[in-house]
Amino acid sequence: MIEASALTKRYGRFTAVNAVTFEVRVGQVLGFLGPNGAGKSTTMKMIAGFLSPTAGRAKVCGFDVETHPIEAKKALGYLPEGAPSYGEMTVRSFLEFIAGIRGLTAESKRRRLDDVIGRLRLEGVLEQTIDTLSKGFKRRVGLAQAILHDPPVLILDEPTDGLDPNQKHEVRRLINDMAENKVIVISTHILEEVHAVCNRVVVIAGGTLLADATPGELEARSRYHMAVSLTTDETAKARETLTAIPEVETVEIDPQNQRITAFPRKGQQILMAVGDALRAQGIAVRELQLETGRLDEVFRNITQSHLREAHA
Amino acid sequence: MKPILTLFQRELRSYFATPVAYVFIVIFLLLSGAFTFYLGRFYERGQADLEPFFQFHPWLYLFLVPAVAMRLWADERKSGTIELLLTLPVTMGQAVLAKFLAAWSFVALALALTFPIWITVNYLGDPDNGVIVTGYLGSLLMAGAYLAIGACLSAATRSQVVAFILSVVVCFLFLLAGFPLVLDLFRAIAPQSLVDAIAGLSFLSHFNGISRGVIDLRDLIYFLLTIGFWLYANAVVIDLKKAD
Ligand SMILES: Nc1ncnc2c1ncn2[C@@H]1O[C@H](COP(=O)(O)OP(=O)(O)OP(=O)(O)O)[C@@H](O)[C@H]1O
Ligand SMILES: [Mg+2]
């Protein structure tokens, strides 16, 4: 379990993280979202015990990171931003070094090494020095290092950055596999990832926590939530028909692909009405979809309105 | 204790992962040989001891030891591995000590490889081997003090070059402090007690005694305290500077 209470980090007069408070429990995979420079990495560094907070505190598995650093660090697997590792070492010797520092016994060391090497597909590069690895492999070595001692708490700063689509998929599956009995915090700029692995999202911008919700709740804040989108050859006629439906607030057409989206009035269900109206007019629809909401739009709204407030 | 050993091993191995270590050892051996035989007039003196050998060590170390120490922390900060290292379950003290001990062992190895000169002097004459052992001990302690300074200053910057230059300057000051020329200068403007204090801080005054075979407990304590002080400073500097 991770508890961050009023975590604050100042650099001189600049506040990188401002009184951020949250708690993550076993079984939760928390996605940390925010624009560049929001303070995600800084928050993670404080929880991992690398930076001392200017104010507030962080606990990992009940251990205060400042007063019981060793216990907290033992319970933690941490992938720092950019996945730094000792470039002159081979992958194998690096992982063995980590196993040694983590105090794994010979038996569990062998088992854990086999496990993470298999999961992250590192078999082919074990004897290669880390300096000569491609970016994606370096990241995988960083991940392997973080999960090697099978820690109850994982903090991963942009774990899928630089991975190819297959590996992204693999790493997400890895996180999902581990999710059940661990506490996991990941930061990411890839919003699909939130759907794929997170069951909770925290949005921060300018060092301030702006939202703490499930991905579903965030999507529900989207303008697109419960909207209906469709494509048809008779765009103009369809637009007229949809505009005439009383529950529909507005109709928009994507200029790029002529996709029509009908937005409901607040709290209204329009899927049935749209279907009925189109059928009544005899409009042939190529595809039709009920939107759940768009995270990128919600993300923009949350973070930009914060910026506007900050400027005002 | 275990984490120190693991860190120590990793660190020491990393020296030999690149050719730098071998280059260093070769340069060290060449220079110490050159100093001893040409500047120290080892043969011409006609005495069976290693004084000409040890006498140049303070100068040899002035450039070579900062070269070993410069990468200790600057490199970790540059590559970001310091974040990895300090989020592993090791204390700052363990990390500082392990790195220092690894660097010290490396210098000790280089020093040990000068053994042919010991054999030579035993072959040519009948030296007091006790004095020679003491000389090696003193030299090693002095190298440790240089290293501790270098390690601390290497934590203050990301740039190895800056770390190197800073360490050479600071080490040079510690050397100079014992030079008659400098002491005379101070004697002219400062009270004797201050002059003594400055002389007391110098590597040179403490090393000269040991290298002549005189083991004075105060000299040993001086070097150990110097090492301790700079390693403590090292930990403080890391704490202050790790964020940027
Ligand atoms: N040592 C430092 N001194 C001054 N400012 C710093 C320092 N380290 C970080 N910052 C600032 O703190 C802010 C937060 O940085 P942080 O790395 O946490 O952002 P982030 O959310 O991880 O961004 P990204 O998505 O780009 O990784 C940034 O504005 C950054 O410039
Ligand atoms: Mg970041």
Automatic annotation (TrEMBL), chain A:
<feature type="domain" description="ABC transporter">
    <location>
        <begin position="2"/>
        <end position="231"/>
    </location>
</feature>
<comment type="similarity">
    <text>Belongs to the ABC transporter superfamily.</text>
</comment>
<dbReference type="InterPro" id="IPR027417">
    <property type="entry name" value="P-loop_NTPase"/>
</dbReference>
<dbReference type="Pfam" id="PF00005">
    <property type="entry name" value="ABC_tran"/>
</dbReference>
<keyword id="KW-0067">ATP-binding</keyword>
<keyword id="KW-0813">Transport</keyword>
<keyword id="KW-0547">Nucleotide-binding</keyword>
<dbReference type="InterPro" id="IPR003439">
    <property type="entry name" value="ABC_transporter-like_ATP-bd"/>
</dbReference>
<dbReference type="GO" id="GO:0016887">
    <property type="term" value="F:ATP hydrolysis activity"/>
</dbReference>
<dbReference type="GO" id="GO:0005524">
    <property type="term" value="F:ATP binding"/>
</dbReference>
<protein>
    <submittedName>
        <fullName>ABC-2 type transport system ATP-binding protein</fullName>
    </submittedName>
</protein>
<dbReference type="InterPro" id="IPR003593">
    <property type="entry name" value="AAA+_ATPase"/>
</dbReference>
UniProtKB/TrEMBL annotation, chain B:
<keyword id="KW-0812">Transmembrane</keyword>
<protein>
    <submittedName>
        <fullName>ABC transporter, permease protein</fullName>
    </submittedName>
</protein>
<keyword id="KW-0472">Membrane</keyword>
<dbReference type="GO" id="GO:0005886">
    <property type="term" value="C:plasma membrane"/>
</dbReference>
<feature type="transmembrane region" description="Helical">
    <location>
        <begin position="189"/>
        <end position="208"/>
    </location>
</feature>
<feature type="transmembrane region" description="Helical">
    <location>
        <begin position="95"/>
        <end position="119"/>
    </location>
</feature>
<feature type="transmembrane region" description="Helical">
    <location>
        <begin position="131"/>
        <end position="149"/>
    </location>
</feature>
<feature type="transmembrane region" description="Helical">
    <location>
        <begin position="220"/>
        <end position="238"/>
    </location>
</feature>
<feature type="transmembrane region" description="Helical">
    <location>
        <begin position="58"/>
        <end position="74"/>
    </location>
</feature>
<keyword id="KW-1133">Transmembrane helix</keyword>
<dbReference type="InterPro" id="IPR051449">
    <property type="entry name" value="ABC-2_transporter_component"/>
</dbReference>
<keyword id="KW-1003">Cell membrane</keyword>
<dbReference type="GO" id="GO:0140359">
    <property type="term" value="F:ABC-type transporter activity"/>
</dbReference>
<feature type="transmembrane region" description="Helical">
    <location>
        <begin position="161"/>
        <end position="183"/>
    </location>
</feature>
<dbReference type="Pfam" id="PF12679">
    <property type="entry name" value="ABC2_membrane_2"/>
</dbReference>
<feature type="transmembrane region" description="Helical">
    <location>
        <begin position="20"/>
        <end position="38"/>
    </location>
</feature>
